[in-house]
Amino acid sequence: MVENVWGLVAVLVFYVVILVIGIVAGRKELSRKSKSSTTETMLAGRGIGMFVGVFTMTATWVGGGYINGTAEAVYKAVEGNGQGLVWAQAPVGFSISLFIAGVFFAKPMREAGYMTMIDPFQKKLGDWMGAVLVLPAVSGEIFWSASILSALGSTLSVIIGLELWISVIVSACVALLYVVIGGLASVVFTDVIQLFCIAVGLVTAIPFAMQHHAVGDVFASAPNSTVPGWLGHIEGRDWGLFVDDYLLLMFGGIPWQVYFQRVLASRSPQVARSLSFLGSFGCLIMAVPPALIGAIGYSTDWNQTSYSGAGEDGTVSSSLVVPLVLQYLTPPVVAVIGLGAVSAAVMSSADSSMLSSSTMFAQNVYKPVFRPQASAREVIWVMRLAAVAFCAIATVLAITIKTIYGLFVMVCYVSDYTCTGRRSSA
Length: 426
Description:
single chain; mainly alpha; Sodium/glucose cotransporter; 18 helices; disordered C terminus
């Protein structure tokens, strides 16, 4: 049963706006050139410039899993086992991965004119080996999509009382629709609107939440310490794991088609490199609001709020900290704005993952291995059907697996196979 009708209306309006923008932008871009061209559909005609490029490159990582997962990791300091901001490694690690990729890979990949990140492997190792390498890459994309869809589902269930499975399915279908119709052109133009909504929604919510009577001094030092408790700490025996996690995130975050799709779609090799650096900085900045939300949740005695699901010690489920802060620590209007931010975060990443995974399947598996003589139109239709299939798998995972941050980090567990052939012990 829907508890917040106006919240539901706001979400539906937002979805309609994003859907219309995505479809119109994609169709307009494709109408200028050949609709049956794989370059136009998969790489937006290699015409992404600096302005749109900065937004879409930052959106490579800033999604629902990024927002909810970062807040979840910070809030986990309440468990008293060394968790906290210091262990929220994904935003920093992924930001560094963009910078490293910009230094070493962006320019040569764009100069070579590849269609996907698998192309150089396929050229060197052969069609079948390239097709095998698609498997971990696509698996990473599916886990990523699942994490961000799960983040939105938990947010909608808390704020407007909508069943998780309904919100996940509807969100996935909206993103899938404009991806199938408009390709990368739809994705990059909607990224501009979505990233703006994320920043405005989260920044607006923070000051209201900090003023709630149940929230203590967020920056007060913890007992027997000179720093806030939500900063966390690293036990001596955990340093090896800590460093290994960072190596996993920094280097496992590079072999990711969502990133290379934007690199290969850039207007020039120089633009591709510049966007990597700017996207790295953007990802780091966008981690600040969710980290603060996690700190606010940590500083809250949830038994002093109207939330009935808090434990006796005044704590809540870490995976729900973002929607709970929005729903119970901010006014209803601000909560709806924050809900729009999380919805935007989901859309900005779900659409990219669907497109990139289906692009690799069509370009590096179907065409070279099964149908070398396939026309461009046939490859595009295979890409669309693959997007539907991968979207369905991610949706099932989002509904059945409960930890957002776990899905978030699993992206690099499987991506690590692609670049090193090993699985980290993290």
